[in-house]
Amino acid sequence: MKNNLHQEFINIFNKEADNAYFSPGRVNLIGEHIDYNGGLVMPCAITFGTYLLTSPNEDGVFRFRSLNFSEQQDTPLQASYEKVGETWFNFPIGVINSFIQEGHNLQGLDMLFYGDIPIGSGLSSSASIEVVTSFALNDIFNSGYSKLDLVKLSKSVENNFIGVNCGIMDQFAVAFGEKNKALMLNCDTLDYEAVDSNLGEYVLAIINTNKPRKLAESKYNERVEECQAALIALQQELDINYLCDIDSQTFSKYQHLITNPTVLKRAKHVIEENDRVKLAAKALAGNNLDEFGRLMYASHDSLRDLYEVSGVELDTVAEYSKTNPNVAGARMTGAGFGGCAIALVKGDAFEDYSKGVTEYYTRKIGYAPSVYSSLIGNGVGLLNEVAI
After folding, report:
1. Which of 13, 258, 274, 341 has its CA 20 to 30 A from that of 205?
2. Are residues 12 and 30 in the same domain?
3. pLDDT > 70: percent of the chain
4. Is there a binding annotation on residue 192?
5. Mean pLDDT score of the chain, rounded to an integer?
6. Which positions fall inside the GHMP kinase C-terminal domain (predicted)?
């Protein structure tokens, strides 16, 4: 499809595009539900994403077109904008609004979007649209933002214009992603390390459970409260600001301070998962994919048993993966209760894995998952400069 985008642009706007951009989606390889506990996450950019072709117009109008959605919009240049229903073009309009509010002079643009990220899969299609739009505007109008500025602006759009209370990991990963590297990121300080992650003979299988995530928001808030309760209990004897300020060894000495067994389980997951991220970085940097796979399984088991955010659909994917000799590791990724799992699968066995997990899952759950193959890709950039 991407090869035909320039022709599609001509068909729609009767002129050629001046610029083309790409921003990926992302998965979190390991480090789940610890970003709000001062811990480390390890996302990477994937090779699915959002394409944006643009050309300025003299009409002072932003024209939004998409090859994914039938809704289209022509919006005159004005002093401010508000969200319009639940339509896809709220994301680029929100970015444009932020640029204008921060005093940048824009002009009319014809914009064609196309995304190959499965919508609603938890692979950050919204962050991908926000970041590709902000990168394009910054490039076209010489607004002078750094990449980190664009990440913060895009997150602000998601929080304040769209109204979704997300953290910064998604926008950060799609902006700063590097080919064959995972980003070990501290979501609190935004310090990060790009960890060599050459998958060798393996590919990243992304398995969308196709289960709507209805419980995630309420359970998410519940887990945040439980972690806060664990922190308060530990602060009786420890001078810490976050659960992830201590490691598993220290936790074992002080866990008696947490008297609620459920809260204890939540804290145990958080602290051990943070340790797993550090071990995973070492395993990837040392090209030890077997060890990385073991840590993926351990992460999933902890999210299932201690944090209780997986569910039968995600567990079924992990369950099948453990029986397949061509899989090094698998785990749920994202908030849980649906969404996606990931697996490290030998590339030449991917089709067999896809068929096997689909049959196993369908037999147990009653409907099929969607299975995709990806490598670790680059972050946002001009299309001719991004290796996709």
Report:
1. 274
2. yes
3. 96
4. no
5. 94
6. 280-351
Q: What is the CATH number of the domain that holds 277?
A: 3.30.70.890
What b/e string do you get for 112-138 counting C-beta neighbours within 10 Å, with b at 16 or more? Answer: bbbbbbbeebbbbbbbbbbbbbbbbbb
Q: Which residues are catalytic?
A: 170
Which pairing describes strands 109-115 and 61-66: parallel, antiparallel, or unpaired?
Answer: parallel
**What's the confidence (pLDDT) of residue 386?**
54
Do 165 and 302 share a domain, yes or no? no
38's tokens: 């001062």
- C-alpha to C-alpha distances, 23 to 274, 278, 377, nearest whole angstrom: 28, 27, 10
What range defines the domain where residue 283 resides? 202-374
d(CA 315, CA 341): 9
- Is residue 342 part of an annotated ligand binding site? no
Task: Flag whether 199 is marked binding.
Answer: no
Residue type, 107: Q
Q: Cα angle vertex 212, ends 341, 228, to 5°?
A: 70
DSSP string, 78-106: -S-----TT-TTHHHHHHHHHHHHTT---
Q: Running DSSP on this structure, what letter comes out for residue 307?
A: S
Same domain membership, residue 209 and residue 194: no
Residue 295 has pLDDT above 80, yes or no: yes
Q: What is the 3-state secondary structure (H, E, C) of 322-338?
A: HHCCCEEEEEEECCCCC
CA 264 to CA 298: how far, in whole Å? 18
Please state, in angstroms and rounded to a whole number, the distance separating the CA atoms of residues 351 and 328: 16
Number of structural domains in the chain: 2
128 known ligand binder: no
**Single-letter code of the amino acid located at 261:** P
